[in-house]
Design goal:
CATH architecture of the largest domain: 3-Layer(aba) Sandwich
Shape: globular
Distance between the termini: 64 Å
Structural class: alpha/beta
Largest sheet: 11 strands, mixed
Radius of gyration: 24 Å
CATH superfamily of the largest domain: Mur-like, catalytic domain
CATH topology of the largest domain: UDP-N-acetylmuramoyl-L-alanine:D-glutamate ligase
Strand content: 15-25%
Mean pLDDT: 94
Number of domains: 3
CATH class of the largest domain: Alpha Beta
Length: about 475
């Protein structure tokens, strides 16, 4: 592909050399560069791609896109200088893969919690309507029926556009995509055309990366700010930040809610550990989902489907046949009358939502035992808050390991314990080994009790000292329950 065509949507500050040259690939990782490639120098969180320009040229790069020109200019290489090379990477990736987002109806879902469930259920609903559909999510990526394992909530710009192109080639008409704050901030979605955006909620998360909550909020808002007038923006009006998302958006604005008047309104009529009876826009339906947060997710799914032109009654009919996403408030019922809930809740707000939902259904008929940990090398500020939520809402809280990564597990647990007073500590146990913590919780549970295993959900691994071990909360729960029979 001609370099000038690749750069057609990139704002160039300065160029040195010819842009009428053939490019045979784009890379931002100098180790992957081959002869005839364009190398894009990105300033990352741990390293600066500008340092690797000489290596990229040595490996065969014939063009370099960068924010700062190197001191030494190679006369055989074309240099393109831009203000934001991460943004330019997104735009060059879109051009390289033939602007696939323009050939699909692409909807992005953003927010702290509910992205995976909302995106996945939209994928399922449109599949049931007979469409070919793509999904980009934390759990799995789908090109219609083909599964492609996910490594990030939102892939890098090159991988993202490659996946979207595969969807186009497979005949997909729709694609639903989780859009993380990292993806917006790092411009992974630059150059994509979104037909719609959904905002779920905003609570504390990723402060280790964004530093302040305000920065985190602005990253989410930027996604809506960049929508064009032909797109729709659907926001949770019950969340105090819901209206913020719409403030500077040119998109058509729509709302959904449980508490306030909205375009798409749901009321929970009844709920138990098997499901909920809902009133959605004036019509009653029973769904095998539990919790107010799932009522929000389903309302977002309904609203999005209608805004994409689907018949309201048909959308509601299909919603009644959808099932929870793996590891999202997934209930396991034992013969002894104990219910175990496996959930991905890994923020204080998500944990509080899950715990309050369980307690509302229990209504003091049984006790709640919560198993929870916090990830290593991540936001330390939420650790005491997670412990407080677990202890305050449970009969017994068991603090344990999540993904310790490079940290000492006990250091993480000490950070959690620092948020508890003497009385709260007396209602908690500290068990470093997650398997033992799950076993202990199941052993403590009696008939009508609920065990909540929080934090990992769909994940089937633990990362300890840089090594990834197989570990699946659901497998451990089944093993623990079987050992008690």
């Amino acid at each position: 592909m001609i370099l000038s065509d690749i750069l057609q949507n990139v704002k160039i500050d300065q160029s040195i050399g010819s842009t009428a040259i053939d490019i045979f690939g784009i890379q931002f990782d100098s180790r992957k560069v081959e002869s005839g490639h364009l190398f894009v120098a990105i300033r990352g969180t741990t390293s600066d791609g500008h340092s690797f320009i000489p290596m990229a040229i040595e490996k065969g790069a014939i063009a370099v896109l960068c924010e700062e020109l190197p001191a030494e200019i190679n006369e055989h290489v074309t240099y393109i200088q831009v203000k934001d090379s991460a943004d330019a990477l997104g735009r060059t990736a879109a051009a390289w893969y033939g602007f696939p987002s323009e050939k699909l109806t692409l909807v992005g879902i953003t927010g702290t919690n509910g992205k995976t469930t909302t995106a996945t259920l939209l994928y399922e609903l449109f599949k049931m309507r007979g469409y070919k559909v793509g999904l980009l999510s934390t759990v799995k990526n789908y090109v219609n029926d083909e599964i492609i394992e996910a490594t990030h909530t939102t892939p890098d710009a090159l991988a993202l556009n490659e996946l979207l192109k595969k969807m186009v080639q497979a005949g997909c008409q729709y694609a639903f995509m989780e859009v993380s704050s990292h993806a917006v901030e790092q411009r992974r979605i630059a150059g994509l055309k979104f037909d719609g955006a959904v905002f779920t909620n905003l609570t504390r998360d990723h402060i280790d990366y964004h530093v302040t909550f305000d920065n985190y909020l602005k990253a989410k808002k930027r996604f809506f700010d960049e929508l064009d007038k032909n797109a729709f923006a659907l926001t949770n009006i019950d969340d105090k930040n819901g209206t913020v998302m719409l403030q500077n958006s040119a998109a058509r604005k729509h709302t959904y809610a449980i508490r306030r008047p909205a375009d798409f309104k749901t009321k929970i009529l009844e709920e138990n550990f098997q499901g909920m009876l809902l009133n959605m826009n004036g019509r009653e339906l029973y769904v095998p989902f539990i919790g107010k947060f799932n009522a929000y997710n389903l309302t977002a799914v309904f609203g999005t489907a209608v805004l994409l032109g689907q018949d309201e009654l048909e959308a509601l009919r299909i919603i009644t046949s959808l099932y929870p996403v793996s590891g999202r408030f997934e209930a396991i019922h034992s013969d002894s009358g104990v219910t175990v809930i496996v959930d991905y809740a890994h923020t204080p707000d998500a944990l509080e939502n899950v715990i309050s939902t369980i307690n509302q259904i229990l209504q003091d008929r049984g006790r709640l035992i919560t198993v929870v940990g916090c990830g290593g090398n991540r936001d330390k500020g939420k650790r005491p808050l997670m412990a407080q939520e677990a202890v305050n809402g449970s009969w017994k809280a068991i603090l344990t390991s999540d993904n310790p990564r490079d940290e000492e597990p006990m250091d993480i647990l000490n950070d959690m314990l620092a948020g508890l007073d003497t009385e709260q500590k007396a209602r908690s146990l500290t068990i470093i080994d997650r398997r033992e913590a799950i076993k202990t919780a199941c052993a403590l549970a009696k008939e009508d009790d609920v065990v909540l295993v929080a934090g990992k959900g769909h994940e089937n691994y633990q990362i300890i000292k840089g090594v990834k071990y197989h570990f699946d909360d659901k497998e451990e729960v089944h093993a623990a329950l079987n050992s008690l029979q």
